[in-house]
Amino acid sequence: MSDYYEILGVSRDASTEEIKRAYRKLARQHHPDVAGVASEEKFKNITAAHDTLSNPEKRRAYDMGGGMPGMGGAGGPGFGGFSDIFETFFQAAAGGTGQRGPAPRSRRGQDALLRVSIDLSEAAFGAARDLEVETAVVCTTCQGTCCQPGTHPKTCDTCQGRGSVQRVARSFLGQVMTTAACAVCGGYGTIITDPCIECSGEGRVRTRRTVRVNIPAGVDEGTRIKLSGQSEVGPAGGPPGDLYVEIREKPHPVFTRRGDDIHCSTALPMTAAALGTVLNLDTLDGTQEVDIRPGTQPEEVVTLRGLGVGHLNGSGRGDLHVHVDVEVPTKLDDDQEQLLRQLATARGEERPEARLAPASPGMFSRLREKFGGR
Ligand SMILES: [Zn+2]
Ligand SMILES: [Zn+2]
Fold this sequence. Notes:
InterPro entries: DnaJ (IPR012724), DnaJ_C (IPR002939), DnaJ_domain (IPR001623), DnaJ_domain_CS (IPR018253), HSP40/DnaJ_pept-bd (IPR008971), HSP_DnaJ_Cys-rich_dom (IPR001305), HSP_DnaJ_Cys-rich_dom_sf (IPR036410), J_dom_sf (IPR036869). By secondary structure, the protein is of the alpha+beta class.
């Protein structure tokens, strides 16, 4: 940071009048309207020096080495202490971060979300899938520098590599400095004169890529699996974003999933329910024998332990529940009817009495399921 007296070319004991004279002369010479945008920085320094030294109070504070009250020293490189205050003020007012310096050209890539449909057995046991993704990878020609090989970005003349330019604005506070991104370099502080032909100066190229995702057992509809750093790389070779894989579970024609348990129902002839039998059932684990005990009732549930969906992040599996649907014959030939009448007689059931009982709550939920009422 140059000294304010040096900037104005006056001695340390110069009078206020001498300071103003020096300022007027220099301002005419270096005003951006006259000398072009390149002189903006110089003009800003001249103005800052004049603002401070022409005000006796500010000049005293400056001479004491404090710049302005509340300022620790003379401010950052290339910036006058006085304008810093307003800069900070305006940045704060605009919700800015107060960050200074050129914006980095390279940024992190975007996250991406991909949906994948799996069937129940993949959810139960887990699966590995290869997914084709539209993505971007670092340009191999420029290695993400965005420049043609052998060339380099050049420092922006307009902002001298700072990425921002200062403007003098008049407001109720008087003459203040505002900071704006440099329009010439887009705020980067550098200009790429020879953009890489391969990636048009983006530093990355679009491509299709195969990503392997390991789907663990126990995933459910809507489960998201995060693949860190598997999304596109950012502009100018920035770090890659994350790829999220969201699970869609295709409905199974037979099995309904409730948590990690699965349910199905099987029709069972009345005689088999009464006498007991062994059913062969196609499960996710192949054909399994299901023991139907003699005297099995309608709506009874036979549970096969551990034949459900694997628990996510744990060991063991849910159960398979087989709901028994006892079928009463609707058509009997003469012989069958005779046999049944004989059975009824033997059991004393020719004219059974009504045995009233309250309806169970479960009955209503079954009615709802069947007829959709409420
Ligand atoms: Zn390139
Ligand atoms: Zn610039």
